[in-house]
């Protein structure tokens, strides 16, 4: 969510009678992340907000300790950065909804398109978990397809049009044949995707990357970077695929892995 409202507008519309410095800091974290669109923020960013609003500059050590104790705050991309837990984020959005633009979020668009609030035998908690997991699915979907596109592009640039025949193991080719055969028998099911990589499991993707380490290191840096993250996420992906619910710390793990991937990977040349 990126809006054009200014920090002073938010402070002016806040009852700060009983505010402590940690309360201001949480407000500033929300402003820096949800309003300005940053993934997280550093203590220096928070202190700058104190300056911009003509507030007393806090002791950074004490403030950092208080933020880490708060249930509303969690670590960002690094231990030294901060962001809000989802519940706190939603609470701030509700509090300042009169200042925010009315553009609906993707979650709100889904809610408008399909009302699942009266699903038989599901509680309100079940429904909220479904929406929460929908956001996690988006991250997994984008990450997985980004990995597949990187593989496809690098292998095609390296091995040519026949990259699949040259790179795939016999086991991968059997898996492809078996899954395509099942699709042929069950024509009412949508196919997995456009090419061979869509029929492979995550472990197979890691195997292909390991087979050509030098070619992929140009775009990933260290092969261990992708090995560890894909192996770590495979079990979480299975939970999502079977409509399970991840705890908040595992959701954060998915989000962090996605952000790490976006920061680490270099865009390869197109094969077109």
Strand-helix topology:
Layout (H helix, E strand, L loop, with lengths): L6 H6 L8 H15 L5 E2 H10 L7 H10 L3 E3 L5 E4 L1 H10 L10 H8 L10 H36 L3 H5 L2 H16 L16 H10 L1 H8 L2 H19 L6 H17 L8
Antiparallel strand pairs: 1-3, 2-3
Helix pairs in contact: 2-3, 7-10, 7-13, 10-12, 12-13
Residue share in helix = 55-70%
What is the multimeric organization of the chains shown? Answer: single chain
Q: Please tell me the total number of domains.
A: 2
Beta-strand share of residues: under 5%
Shape: globular
Cα radius of gyration in angstroms: 23 Å
* Major sheet: arrangement of strands: 1-3-2
As residue ranges, the low-confidence spans are none
Order of helices and strands: HHEHHEEHHHHHHHHH
Number of helices: 13
Structural class: mainly alpha
The overall strand count is: 3
* Through-space gap between termini: 34 Å
| Average residue pLDDT | 88
Major sheet characteristics: 3 strands, antiparallel
How would you characterize this protein structure?
62% of the residues lie in helices and 3% in strands. It is mainly α. It has two domains: 7-103, Arc Repressor Mutant, subunit A (Orthogonal Bundle); 124-264, no CATH class. It has a three-stranded antiparallel beta sheet. Strand 2 and strand 3 (81-84) form a beta hairpin. Helix 7 (124-159) runs parallel beside helix 10. The radius of gyration is 23 Å and the shape is globular. The protein starts with 6 loop residues before the first helix and ends in an 8-residue tail after the last helix.
């Amino acid at each position: 969510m990126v809006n054009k409202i200014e920090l002073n507008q938010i402070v002016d519309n806040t009852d700060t009678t009983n505010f402590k410095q940690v309360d201001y800091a949480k407000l500033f974290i929300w402003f820096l992340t949800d309003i300005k669109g940053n993934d997280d923020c550093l203590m220096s960013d928070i202190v700058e907000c104190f300056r911009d609003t003509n507030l007393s500059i806090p002791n950074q050590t004490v403030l950092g300790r208080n933020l880490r104790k708060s249930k509303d705050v969690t670590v960002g991309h690094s231990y030294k950065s901060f962001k809000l837990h989802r519940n706190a984020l939603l609470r701030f959005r509700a509090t300042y909804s009169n200042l925010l633009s009315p553009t609906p979020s993707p979650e709100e668009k889904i809610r408008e398109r399909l009302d699942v609030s009266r699903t038989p035998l599901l509680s309100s908690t079940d429904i909220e978990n479904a929406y929460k997991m929908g956001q996690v699915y988006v991250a997994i979907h984008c990450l997985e397809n980004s990995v597949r596109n990187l593989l496809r592009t690098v292998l095609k640039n390296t091995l040519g049009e026949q990259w699949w025949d040259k790179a795939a193991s016999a086991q991968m080719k059997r898996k492809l044949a078996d899954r395509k055969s099942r699709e042929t028998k069950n024509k009412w099911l949508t196919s997995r995707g456009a090419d061979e990589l869509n029929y492979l499991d995550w472990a197979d993707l890691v195997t292909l990357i390991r087979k050509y380490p030098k070619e992929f290191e140009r775009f990933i840096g260290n092969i261990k970077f992708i090995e560890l993250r894909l192996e770590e996420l495979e079990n979480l992906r299975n939970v999502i695929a079977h409509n399970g619910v991840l705890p908040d710390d595992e959701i954060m793990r998915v989000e962090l892995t996605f952000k790490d991937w976006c920061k680490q990977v270099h865009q390869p040349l197109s094969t077109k």
